[in-house]
Amino acid sequence: MAEEKKLFKITIDNITIDVEPGTTVLQAARRIGGDVTPPAMCYYTHLKGSGGKCRTCLVEVAAGSAADPRPMPKLVASCRTNVMDGMVVKSITSERVLDARAGVVEFLLINHPLDCPICDQAGECDLQDLSYEHGKEGTRYEFRRRTFEKEDIGPYIQLHMTRCILCYRCTYVADQLTDHRLHGILDRGDHSEISTYISKAIDNDFSGNMIDVCPVGALTDRTFRFKNRVWFTKPMDAHRNCDTCCGKVTLWLRGDDVLRVTARKDEWGEVQTYDGKPGWICNECRFHKKHKFDWEIEGLTNINRHSVIGQGKYPGLQMPKETIADVMGGKQPNLLMDIHSISDVNEPEIDLSKIEGPATSKTFNNK
Ligand code: SF4
Ligand code: FES
User: Distance between CA 48 and CA 52 in Å, rounded?
Assistant: First the structure.
């Protein structure tokens, strides 16, 4: 009889689960899900060696293990720390962790520009979400920020190095998905930058996946740049028979136009897994199949309800009950900027899930 595998118990923010030995604290937290899960800007499940660079996933270990229950003196990167049996971890229940996350956001934003209004990644940017959830309203940085010229790396990808947070994910894609690496990180410290090797274009079949793994808007799809805001598009799951990749994608539609093709992402923003393999897509599917008739459409992509992309797209959506007024004795929270009361694009009588295609100005002007 096969020997029963011993599982390790780990408690994260007072929730206890059993996981296999070798699981990282981050993966254990992802099994629990929700707010307990630390943010992760550089770790990527399907890229070997990723993690340990950005420090956004720091957690407090209140007890190292059942055998040695001493707390760890410093916060640890949950993506690089393996679970021990009886470990007790604090994520959002730790003041130190929340303070550290605010510090990491401040560090990341030292050089990253606040150009979300013109950045193609806005609406699906991990740094935008991180700043919104954990950032402070100000910065203490007074020095000149580093800036770079934009660089086309190959016919399909543009590198906007000023936005790069040096997470290394794209270099792992280049290393692990393409035949030979043509770009990497040069120099050290404040001078570090992503660069192509003697201006060689990245023209490998799978190079487009660098765009999908980039957590910010540093690597963008040149065929989509400035075409649309992502929340005005309608994401649809679609597939085609492809000899090179899994052929399972998300199409980002505006009316009948396919504006962008990406790999399908899971709830952590990583490519979905099919039969145990990551669903990377090839450049042919991503950049050359830009017609609806190239694809068999399966239906609307399931987008997290907290994402701005999902707003108004799903019929029958049950909104959770707003509880703030209850606990504040009937008082409404003070919103910094309550655009809902003044914006014309928030007409409650217009059901965006019932209109054909995404909303345009006509939707509101012809009412
Ligand atoms: S370009 Fe994007 S994926 Fe590459 S290191 Fe910079 S932030 Fe990471
Ligand atoms: S996700 Fe753990 S250090 Fe970046």
Answer: 12
Spell out the per-residue pLDDT of the chain, length 367, in tens: 556 778 999 999 999 999 999 999 999 999 999 889 999 999 999 999 999 999 999 999 999 999 999 999 999 999 999 999 999 999 999 999 999 999 999 999 999 998 999 999 999 999 999 999 898 888 888 898 889 899 888 889 999 999 999 999 998 888 888 776 666 777 777 778 777 664 455 677 888 999 999 999 999 999 999 888 998 899 999 999 999 999 999 999 998 899 999 999 998 999 999 999 999 999 999 999 999 999 999 998 988 767 888 776 776 666 667 777 777 777 666 555 555 565 655 666 777 767 776 677 777 776 5
Q: Are 324 and 332 in contact (CB under 8 A)?
A: yes
Evaluate: CB of 240 within 6 angstroms of ligand 2.
no
- Cα of 360 vs centre of ligand 2, distance in Å, is 39
Q: How far is the CA of 211 from the centre of ligand 1 (A)?
A: 9
Show the DSSP H helices in 112-153 as ranges.
126-134
* 224 burial type by CB count under 10 A (0-12 exposed, 13-18 middle, 19+ buried): buried
